[in-house]
């Protein structure tokens, strides 16, 4: 079994050193970066299984780095923060972070959350192998490749945006409550508010529309949640 690779991005040397010790003792290969720009360079140049990303950094904060990373690859991102406010967690999760750990870091909790992210990512990747593609008017989803194509053009989605899109598309006409979507994507350890789903849905709709999709397949079920419904396409064609 190959050694799992972790990218640690934090401007505090003491914190990086502490994390390196925790992770190395667990058998991870650790790459360290002291700021956001350096971390992005390492992220682009090497393959990593998970990223530990500090929120408060001088040159580029963790939210900016997270957003840029989500434009590159769907690697699980765990935010490190001294902030415990729900609004900060919702902001991070809304732009693509997968989980949070509040400083000072408890080593057992940190390792447990990393393994939970890795299991979740692996489960989501393997659960859809039997489904080669999901086809809708002007829209095709390839689960094995985690690829979305609109009008023969690839659409760049964050990991969570893709997961939501695929979940809804695999169950047409089924209404999912926000809490149900959160539980499937983040598990029971999610600490934020379920309204983070609304942000992801808004981003998905905007990207599909910008790509030229003439209808909105994700319908809002007021007071409940969302469902997949491509019937509006056929109404447009009448």
Automatic annotation (TrEMBL):
The primary site where this protein sits is cytoplasm
Q: DNA-binding region(s): which residue ranges?
A: 131-230
Keyword annotations of the record: DNA-binding, Phosphoprotein, Transcription, Transcription regulation, Two-component regulatory system
List each copy of the Response regulatory domain by range: 5-118
Residues bearing 4-aspartylphosphate? 54
Query: InterPro entries, per this entry?
Result: CheY-like_superfamily (IPR011006), OmpR/PhoB-type_DNA-bd (IPR001867), Sig_transdc_resp-reg_receiver (IPR001789), WalR-like (IPR039420), WH-like_DNA-bd_sf (IPR036388)
A single GO BP term for this record reads: regulation of DNA-templated transcription
Q: Where are the transmembrane segments?
A: none
Where in the cell? Cytoplasm
Q: Residues in domain OmpR/PhoB-type?
A: 131-230
Q: Where is it found, in Gene Ontology cellular component terms?
A: cytosol; protein-DNA complex
| Gene Ontology molecular-function annotations | phosphorelay response regulator activity; transcription cis-regulatory region binding
Q: What is this protein called?
A: DNA-binding response regulator
**Naturally occurring in which organism (per UniProt):** Paenibacillus kribbensis
């Amino acid at each position: 079994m190959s050694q799992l690779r972790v990218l640690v991005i934090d401007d505090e040397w003491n914190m990086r050193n502490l994390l390196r010790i925790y992770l190395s003792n667990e058998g991870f290969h650790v790459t360290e970066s002291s700021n956001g720009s350096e971390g992005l360079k390492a992220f682009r140049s090497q393959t990593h299984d998970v990223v530990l990303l500090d929120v408060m950094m001088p040159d580029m904060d963790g939210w900016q780095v997270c957003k840029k990373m989500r434009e590159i690859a769907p690697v699980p991102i765990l935010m490190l923060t001294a902030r415990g406010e729900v609004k900060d967690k919702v902001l991070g999760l809304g732009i693509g972070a997968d989980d949070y750990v509040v400083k000072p870091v408890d080593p057992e909790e940190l390792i447990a959350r990393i393994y939970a992210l890795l299991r979740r990512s692996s489960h989501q990747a393997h659960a859809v192998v039997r489904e080669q593609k999901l086809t809708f008017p002007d829209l095709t989803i390839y689960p094995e490749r985690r690829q979305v194509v609109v009008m023969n053009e690839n659409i760049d989605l964050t990991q969570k945006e893709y997961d939501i899109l695929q979940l809804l598309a695999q169950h047409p006409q089924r209404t999912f409550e926000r809490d149900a979507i959160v539980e499937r994507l983040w598990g029971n350890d999610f600490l934020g508010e379920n309204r983070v789903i609304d942000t992801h849905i808004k981003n998905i709709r905007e990207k599909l529309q910008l790509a030229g999709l003439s209808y909105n397949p994700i319908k809002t079920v007021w007071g409940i949640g969302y469902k997949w419904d491509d019937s509006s396409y056929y109404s447009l064609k009448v």
